Amino acid sequence: MKLSELRKHQRRALGFLKKARLPITAHEAKNIEVADFGLNDVQHIGLELVVYENNDRYCAKELVLFPGQICPEHRHPPRDAGNPGKRETFRCRWGKVFLYVEGEPVRRPKGKVPADKKPYFTVWHEIILKPGDQYTLAPNTLHWFQSGPQGAVVSEFSSSSDDESDIFTDPNIMRIPVIDQ
Amino acid sequence: MKLSELRKHQRRALGFLKKARLPITAHEAKNIEVADFGLNDVQHIGLELVVYENNDRYCAKELVLFPGQICPEHRHPPRDAGNPGKRETFRCRWGKVFLYVEGEPVRRPKGKVPADKKPYFTVWHEIILKPGDQYTLAPNTLHWFQSGPQGAVVSEFSSSSDDESDIFTDPNIMRIPVIDQ
Description:
- 2 copies of one chain form a homodimer.
- The first copy, chain A, is mainly beta.
- Chain A has helices spanning 3-19, 26-30, and strands at residues 33-35, 47-54, 58-65, 70-75, 88-101, 125-129, 134-137, 143-159, 167-168.
- The radius of gyration of chain A is 15 Å and the shape is globular.
- The interface between A and B is medium-sized, with 27 and 27 residues.
């Protein structure tokens, strides 16, 4: 991703944080992470993140989803004997989120995925999060989410975060931080 | 605390959450915790809390401070061999907070404590948190905080929370949840 493109997505993400009335510092704004998951199609599959704190015990982030943007299916595997994998809570602050987890598939999902990516979305139990709603995921369970047509801002509270260990259903995905390349 | 008084403080706290544009559910609103620390003087020394999630790994809360309200000095001691005590991050979302921790005392503190309680406030290293600012406390370190004249709303991200184990400097304090009594 070119620096100019990164800055464009960061500015757009900042706009959503402003709509949600969630103030961030200038330093945080300059360092908004834009995850394209190595697919180079941020518009459809991507995520914007402000990491407030990530230490060996807990993590807190703000997630921004542009309208219809998808965070692709993945799970957080066990890391060692004392760590069963990342546990996380999503709390919708603004907009609407369609969250999909393991369980009974919904008949008519609100979420829409690109046709060529369908095989990489295997869980369809639907949870709809509106502002003030939240959902806590058990470690090592598959999940993905997409924002509604207005976009969304979601607070994530979790155990320690280590994105590099995430396992994605789509083998083409690489979860590496996007920086000027 | 009488139920009528609890409800009054809950309504007031909800007003601050609305000012901060932090939506909570009706169920959460009815269950806002009002901590009076056993001092029966919520106006001056007290805290209002919405606990979003508290599990054996992490915890996330919204804290409301009425104008000038004080969360009294305390620390989170080690709990067992594997737990050095609660670690926590305060992120100001709205208003202003004067946070006091161990370290070089400030010469002219912004925080003001009632004269008869002064002996129970022993750390005076001042950190001022405005919206978007945050501070992470090491476990088992003394701290207290007070909101500015407008009140404040603060997100707390932390390791697992167990209020009952908190150690307060003021021996008159009992940290028990306030319910209809």
